[in-house]
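Continued from yesterday's entry.
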Amino acid sequence: MIMQNKTKQESKSPKGNSKNGKDSNGMDSSQLMQLFEDQLKDIYWAEKALTKALPKMIKNATSEELIEVLNSHLKETEGQVTRLEQVFELIEKKAAAKKCDAMEGLIKEGESIMEECEEGPMRDAGIISAGQKIEHYEIATYGTLRTFATTLGLTEVAELLDLTLEEEKTADKTLTEVALSVVNVKALVASNAEDK
């Protein structure tokens, strides 16, 4: 009787895992699943915080190109929050946020940059700098989450996370293009004009 209960319990492992709770590398999949869920809660908090931080960046930006990119990424971020809620649903967990200290720090740093930089091209360059730090954090997080999901056999979850990962990479690339083509050049000209 005890043996039958244990077998039933073991067969309740997360979708796509082996019934003995170990993955193909011998790792306890329940521990990996717990780490995955913890990181998912972390990025869920981070994305929700960004939906509040991006409007502040938009308000402080002066470059039309930068404002356009930030507005576009705000809409994208709202979609990413919804996508994360789909991921929680797929793993049969309630969508819950856990404070992300890293994102909180990156957002605070961005706010400091906006306060310290003079309005105009210099502040726009600072906003891009802060934005790219945020993008790099998100790229690292979504890449890790996608890999965890793949290892756990959560194919549909991995596909959703990969969509967001690609959006974050594109946002980073777009910020670089705006910096190189418009903002940094104007910031340099403004800086040189002040030095004279």
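--- second protein ---
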Amino acid sequence: MLIDDFERAIAILRKIKNLGVRVAMDDFGTGYSSLSYLQAFPFDKIKIDQTFIAKIGTNNQATAIIHAIVGLGRALALPVIAEGVETEEQLAFLVTEGCDEVQGYLSDGHSRSLTTGTC
């Protein structure tokens, strides 16, 4: 989404977080997701868009982007979730990269932690 009133959006997200709701940057790497949003908004997690996950093993650029997003999340102390994980090959790659959680067919459509075994 394109945000017209940045300050108001930040204030609303902070109020939501004060209620105990966790906020994730969804579909990171596509659409209107932006590095400046990661800096400005109080996100708790980054979710890698499934279009990158689907290309694991077939597209070097997609795997490089996933590597970079996981590294960015680590540097910002934000857990990273991979959306649309459907194969063992994808899961193995994401474990190797240090991704924190996965969502998709292999996790019954729910988020699954790769570090603790729970969410």
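The beta strands are 24-28, 45-48, 80-82, 101-102, 112-113. The two ends are 27 Å apart (CA to CA). Will compare against the first tomorrow.
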